[in-house]
Amino acid sequence: MAMQVALGVCRVNPNPLMTIKNVSVRCLATQASPKSKTVQDKTGKNIVFVDGVRTPFLPSGTGYQKLMPHELARHALLNLSRRTGIPREAVQYIVYGTVIQEVKTSNIARDSALCAGFSERIPAHTVTHACLSSCQAITSGIGLIASGAYDVVVAGGVETMSDVPIRLNRNLRSILLKMNKAKTPMAKLKLLASFSPKYLAPELPAVAEFTSGETMGKSADRLSAAFTVSRQEQDDYARRSHQLAHEAHEKGYLTDIVPFPIPGSSKVVSRDEGVRVSDPEKLAKLKPAFIKPHGTVTAANASFLTDGASASIIMPEKKAKELGVKPKAYLRDYIYVSQDPVHQLLLGPAYAIPEVLARAGLTIEDIDVWEIHEAFAGQILANLKAMDSDWFAKTHMNRSEKVGVPDLAKWNTWGGSLSIGHPFAATGVRLVSHAANRLIKEGGRYALVAACAAGGQGVAMIIERHPDASM
Length: 471
Hints:
alpha+beta, Peroxisomal Thiolase, Chain A, domain 1, single chain, about 475 residues, 15 helices
């Protein structure tokens, strides 16, 4: 309880959530019951998600390690056009997300589009919103369409963690910049005299939260402790994610993947390569990765560094009919939230889900498909317990009662970020694509997509299956 008080989330409903061991690991196809509820179109455009594609997601340092981000993005953009049959010249605007930015392609949306053969007359801009970046790309596109500025928008994201920008030490950078301005040899010598060998140590991209200085893994460990999420619960959930992803691959459900030929080799990557179904005994033997020796987050129940790219195309329903394409889903509503980045860093879904349901006039029971980003197994289970807590709802969300727990038989049934992988800026489109495809496959009507992100932020989106949708 002392740990719970320190985290600011003490007195969470002590009744444990239904144990993950009781959740089936089979891919379930659930036929939704007819629903009379209609979600209002707030844009006046009935904006639709036509389709989404992605490269296979690979662990960083493997198959994509010699590639630059724009090469992955180019592949996704090219295959989006091929998949949908929508000519590149019909696209009017491109929004792309990235988090760890490659300095040579400062506007990767524009550079990737040009490399993919899109017209030089198509504007493009890059967004960054941590793990929500391609959700931000999609919702930025919604805004552009709703405003009447454009009709056909491509939204996506790309991340390459195999090659991240490494900077010279700040002190050394300062000396070099001053050297460039020095007027006399004496001034340059004086600057050189201030040099220290320790200035040769490079600066890597930050892996800790700026506001707290704490890594996300440590935050996940503390969050798991605060909500009394056990190590076994986390390992069981992680194994479920890998099992479901494996089955989805084997059954051919992951049709958003477009095979990627590795340049300079004969290898063609056609599936996500981070999926590993391990024995429970092996998972139990892994040591804590962040808080040692008593932490519960391990390499197996946390998402891994991943390379990959995704792309989608959205437009008004009227425009889709003009182009002769069948959309997969309506993009009905969305909301972004933010909360305490220290003690509640990863609770974005718990805050965003009730808000977006209320905006859309829906309840948990109305949702047929849940696609939720899995940063850590502990994060997922803590969010579920927060959603099942009246105390949390009243104390932290100004709500009279809890929102409740979704049916886990409808939750990430094709796997999630723990198994499929998580290229930071590409995951949002993957979530929406899987949600749309599952609605079609499972005969559902409404899907909810949600994710947490660095800085204590989160997103939730409501999508509705289009009546003309097909796989």
